[in-house]
Amino acid sequence: MTETYEVEADIDASAARVWHALTDSRELEQWFCEHADVDLTAGRFDFWGRHTPHVPTREQGHGRVLEAQPERLLCIDWGGMTITFHLEGSTLRVVHDGAPERPTTGGHLPSHWWQFALGHLQSLLTIGQTGPRFDWSAPHHGGFTVVAAVDAPPAMVWDGLASGWLTPHNERRRPPRNDYEDFGFDVGVVMGIKVLDLDRPRRLSMEWIGDETTVLSYDLDTDGAGGTFVTIVQSGFDENEDLQGQAEGFFSGVAELAWRLSGAKVTIRRIRDGSHDMRLASERV
To answer: How many helical (H) and strand (E) elements, i.e. helices and strands, does the chain have?
Structure first.
């Protein structure tokens, strides 16, 4: 069984500028992948390396151009999957067809990957930098650790990260299910949350209570130059469980915060996860 994923975003740049960022090897390496080799005339669209899910080699990352209409449409075959970029005015829509079904809830989800990538693209085109990028070569079995550098002081980063969990009016927050929990949190299913350690603006540690109990922690440290290192750790899963996709999801949240604090304007309009279609009106600024 395969799935189709779709992400649509507003890109604050001309169609010509976006097309160049989509088809120039050096530009792709800044916002999308570690390595790229693109030649539309030759029908080649290769990308590979540690910023791509499953860390393909050069040979595994071979892509073939199926159709190219400058500043309008680019369709490639990549590993037996079809990836199509539709460019209409300021809107860029990516359709990823033929992706394998997600094996576990912690596995790779292509819509997360594309949402993350398009945010990087917009950040590059508006402020000239992309923010932290996820490294798929790090192992994430039984838990994960991700580290990102954000160009803002710890107090500002804390306000962006912790408020999402601790603000009572968060749309995902739910009442506690029992006397032990502090509140519930909706991540598709409602998880119980128990705050274990709260030290503003340096550390937040929480117990996640569901079918299995895990611990999620955020640690913030100054980088000595006015910025902040954010370390996110979640542990307690079965050692055989692959958490790559979950690690990417938390990392992308830090990247979105980095874009917002740096002034990048990122607007994701639509996300289609398999059969689930979400149209978003919110702007991340």
So the answer is: 5, 16
Distance, in Å, from the CA atom of 231 to the CA atom of 284, rounded to the nearest integer, reads 22
Using CA atoms, how far apart are residues 248 and 227, in angstroms rounded to an integer? 22
Query: Cβ–Cβ contacts within 10 Å for residue 268, how many?
Result: 21
Q: CA 278: distance to chain centroid?
A: 16
Which segment of 29-33, 64-68, 171-175, 246-250 scores lowest on mean pLDDT? 246-250
Q: Give the C-alpha separation, 116 to 63, whole Å.
A: 21
Q: Give the Cβ contact number of residue 246 at 10 Å.
A: 24
Residue 9 lies in a domain: yes
Cβ 120 vs Cβ 260: under 8 Å: no
Evaluate if residue 280 carries a pLDDT over 50: no
- Domain count for the chain: 2
Residue 122's CB is within 10 A of a number of other CB atoms, namely: 27
Domain extent at residue 72: 2-131+266-279
Task: Tell me if 150 sits within 8 A of 137, measured CB to CB.
Answer: no
Residues 117 and 206 occupy one common structural domain? no
Give, as one character, the DSSP assignment of residue 101: P
